[in-house]
Each structure stands twice: as structure tokens, then as C-alpha cells.
Amino acid sequence: MRTLLWASVLIHGxxxxxxxxxxxxxxxxxxQGATNVEPQSPVSVTFAADNGVTxxxxxxxxSIDGRDVTRDTVVTTDFLSxxxxxxxxxxQRQVLLEFTNSAGQARRVTWSxxxxxxxxxxxxxxxxxxxxxxxxxxxxxxxxxxxxxxxTVTVYLVQDGRTLQNLPxxxxxxxxxxxxxxxxxxxxxxxxxxxARLANANQVRFATADQPLRLVTGAATGNQQLTVxxxxxxxxxxxxxxxxxxxxxxxxIRDRSFTVNGLTSPNASVRIEATAETNIVGGFxxxxxxxxxxxxxxxxxxxxxxxxxxxxxxxxxxxxxxMTASQGGQTSATTRLELTQE
Length: 342
Prior knowledge:
Strand order of the largest sheet: 2-3-12-11-7-8
Largest sheet: 6 strands, antiparallel
Mean pLDDT: 81
Number of domains: 3
Structural class: mainly beta
Low-confidence stretches: 1-13, 16-22, 220-237, 281-285
């Protein structure tokens, strides 16, 4: 609809001058008055011809907080888009858009939005305990998500591309989110894809487990049949031997530091000894460093975690980690995990 502007006028939060048949400016992003905007948000608007009048892209000038950013802006007759090379600082940001339309009329459009504090929302890993073998009905499916602390995490299980389960995760320690679910016969799945969604402030991140999972009916031979309560407490009886939930024996490490997540009896103490062994001079000489020799406390669900930061990360370095749980005068069997640096 044509709008006759006889003076500076505020239309949908955009201050437009001077008198002219209005070239339509719509869908400003971030919107006028928007708050808690992500620091790396792009700035954009769309243009629409009115009564045959269009924008002249070569006349566009975009400024943010008084700084001309036109050189870094993509402009066509239909839209404008600017993506900041550096995140916006927190606080109110002022946008000024100036251009001339095909009728030779100069225009100015201004609006503002408020940038929130930066939150680096991320998911560093999504793992489950069905990577090596299928889980049978009566067993516990354990899914662990590592990400930004203080977030809301939901896990989606896509079953054979047909059905979707929504599994809320609980933050059991800082940045560690866990799903414990009892597998039932009705859950039988040949190919299950695990997708994690993490939301923090106005940021949302998704990540998928590297390996699919398989759920089968009936009891798996030699596997202990558990209820959810049994699994959370300590198994059928006795102190639960520590179980690593995000690595398998023989896995390879790509990063300079890594976090080991585990599960044992609730509130148990876990003694962790970790070493790094590196061969040098053709394998005849080697070095060994101690990465950990400490006790960590499992939380009320039996979840524990430790981050290891080796000072030498040469390809082929072998990490040996031993974990033993103790509680109430009982000591579990020792779990041994061996990893290799890529």
C-alpha cells in the first residue's frame, strides 16, 4: 500500500524521512526494539517496489553506531544483509540505512536493538552405551551430552526414520547432561539416531551421536536385567564397577585434552589413576607422565567425570586410565581404559 510521507514518520518502529511515496522497507532483523540479541546476529532488511519505484543499490549506505559498514554489506534491489566481522558488544545498537530510490528521492531509515551478553553455547559430545552392541529389553539406555553448563538439553531418538522419542536430559554435574531410560520390547529399533538439542539464553545448538544405536526385544545373553531404579542405585547388588560412558577401549583421541565420563553407585568415591606413555627414538626409549592420581565423587545418580590434560600429545601416545569405586567399606573391581592419541 502506498503511504505518503510529509515529514519524518515512525512506521513499524522504523524512522523514515523525507517526504516521498514510500519505498517499502520490511522485515528488519534484528527487529526494532529487540532485546537479548545474539552478538553475532546479522543485520538485514527486505525491499519491495512501490508504484514502480525501486531502490538503487549503488546509493545504499549502512551505518551501525555511527560506523559506516557499507563495504561489508550485501545489497540487491530486494534485500540488504550485513554480518559483523566481530561480535556486537552488549547494549543498545543504532542502525542507520540511507539510500536513493529510482525516482531520485533520498531516504533515511533508523532503528535500534539491544545485544545481550555473549553466551558461547556449544555441545562438545553426544555418546551412548549402545555403540558396541545392541541393548535388550530390560537394560538401561544411557545417553550423555557434554555442553555449556546451565542449559536446557533435550535428546531426540529417531527410530528407523519413522518415530521420534523426546527424552529430557538432567544436568547431573556442570555441563554434563544424562538420560537414563529403561529399554522395553516396544522400543525395538534397528537404527536409532541420537540427536541432542541444547538451549542457552537465545542460542540453540544441535549435535548427533557419531554412531547409531540398536534396541532389541528379549534378554540379551549374559546381560544383567535391570530396572531404572536398580541401574541408578548400583545394579542388582553390591557396589557398581565404574563404567565409562563416552569412550570404548581402544578409541582414539583427537584433542589436546579430553574428558572421561563414567557411571557407578550414587555418591561413591572413584579412585582414578591415569598415565600417558609416549615412545621416542624408534620405540626404544619412552616417556611416561602422570595425568591423574586422585579421587572424585560420583553424584546422586552415580555420574562422575574427570578432564585429563596431557602436556605431551604426540601421535601414538597411549593413555591408560584405571578407575576403582569405593563406598561403605566396599571396593569394586577396577575398570581399565586404554586410549591412543591420533
